[in-house]
């Protein structure tokens, strides 16, 4: 018989101590979705009441990162946004000490291409922002979680 590798992704809003304890006890790994610092995350991750989810998600990530639940913490999933500062995004995520960070390009297709900023003031292609992110990672001196894109 094979062991199951159970994983789940969450915005963290419902991750309380009891749920985290169950995840750790059952060997289920949970990742949390956070798009960086407060401003970056608040750009798209809005709760039904109109307020951002940043504080609640960070609280859940800190809970999952606590020693008693750390085995259930799979890392952070971050969607790249060309309007966000890559250094601020990475710094905010790395300071939460996740075991890994996954950077996800926004959903796009030929019919609906990713957002673009053709101005010279920043932005650019989402793929270019991954390159900018690489520069932010190399200049950040704290512990570096594993990165995936």
Could you give the topology of this structure?
Elements: E1 7-10, H1 17-26, E2 29-33, H2 38-42, H3 54-65, E3 73-79, H4 86-94, E4 100-104, H5 126-139, E5 146-148
Parallel strand pairs: 1-2, 2-3, 3-4, 4-5
How would you portray this structure in words?
With 149 residues, the protein is α/β, with parallel strands linked by helices. The chain is 34% helix and 16% strand. It contains 5 helices and 5 strands; from the N terminus they run βαβααβαβαβ. The protein has a 5-stranded parallel β-sheet, with helices on one face. The chain starts with 6 loop residues before the first strand and ends with a strand. The mean pLDDT is 82.
């Amino acid at each position: 018989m094979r062991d199951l590798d159970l994983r789940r992704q969450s915005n963290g809003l419902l991750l309380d101590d009891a749920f985290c304890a169950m995840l750790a006890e059952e060997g289920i790994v949970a990742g949390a979705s956070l798009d960086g610092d407060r401003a970056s995350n608040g750009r798209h991750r809005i709760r039904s009441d109109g307020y951002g989810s940043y504080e609640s998600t960070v609280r859940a990530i800190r809970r999952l990162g606590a020693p008693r639940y750390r085995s259930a913490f799979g890392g952070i999933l971050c969607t790249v946004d060309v309007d966000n500062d890559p250094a601020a995004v990475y710094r905010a995520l790395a300071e939460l000490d996740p075991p890994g960070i996954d950077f996800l390009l926004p959903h796009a297709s030929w019919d609906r291409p990713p957002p673009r900023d053709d101005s010279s003031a920043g932005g650019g292609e989402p793929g270019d922002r991954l390159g900018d992110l690489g520069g932010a990672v190399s200049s950040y001196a704290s512990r570096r979680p594993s990165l995936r894109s």
